[in-house]
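Lab channel / #folding
Pinned by the channel admin:
"Please post every new chain as: sequence first, then the structure tokens as a reply. Keep commentary short and put observations after the output so the thread stays searchable."

First post following the new format, from NK:
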Amino acid sequence: MKTGVYYHPDFADKGFTTLQHRVKPGFDALQGLIRAGKIEVFTPVINQQAEELLRQTHHDDLINRVKATPYHEVALLSAAGVIQAAEKLSQGELEFAFCFVGSAGHHAGYNYTWGFCYYNDVAMAVKRLQVLGVEKIMIIDVDPHSGDGTRDILANETSIIHINFHADEEYNYADHKRQNYGIFIDGADDRTFLAAVDEYLEQDWDYEFLIVIFAHDGHGQDYGDFYLSTRGYQEFAKKIKAFATGKPILFVLSGGSNPQVAAEVIPVVIEVFVHN
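Reply from TO:
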């Protein structure tokens, strides 16, 4: 598959403190694939389009609050990479893309943020895809902390399928009429997690474009409330690849702080898509 990775050194140098230390080890672990020509690396840029999408996605009050923190630029740069990857995928220039980030996005709602998230990168990319004519989008979120911000922004978008595999007992966003699904699997190991994924991937979904909010904080050696192994993430990637055959696939990095886990999990997942 034509594979692109979006990365900027600022994600490691200026990213949110909990997340930044995993970025460079995760990227460095890809150097063999990059040297072999299996991956093309793209450097995101903040442009006018990213600025406009930010204003379309978030309230001015939130933007001003974030600008008062040290993370405005790196959060917008992260979102810009996701937007730019989505564009290339929608235009057929890539088949699979993986986006590194300096701050996560799925806890950023229209006018609130928490949990290392500032701007909702995926919601911004969805808005860009809709302008490009991509209407039916599926979002699969495997961060153990549920994607409340994504739901807050996209709740009324009935053409967006939003599936959360999570460990959040207070998740109350499920609304099947609006194609929002919450699968509570607190403490899941590989077997429980992959069985839950199978149950949903086996259903007949109508979508054109797949976005996976991908977090390695669910690894047994990271801070989330899943207990997955590196092999479990690899198997998940294989299932996603088989499920979305012929459709663009965008992975967006979310939670996770352990550099060793990042260096193990990220290349193993990307290799699944690189090799036919």
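NK: The longest helix spans residues 72-90.
TO: also worth noting, The chain has a mean pLDDT of 96.
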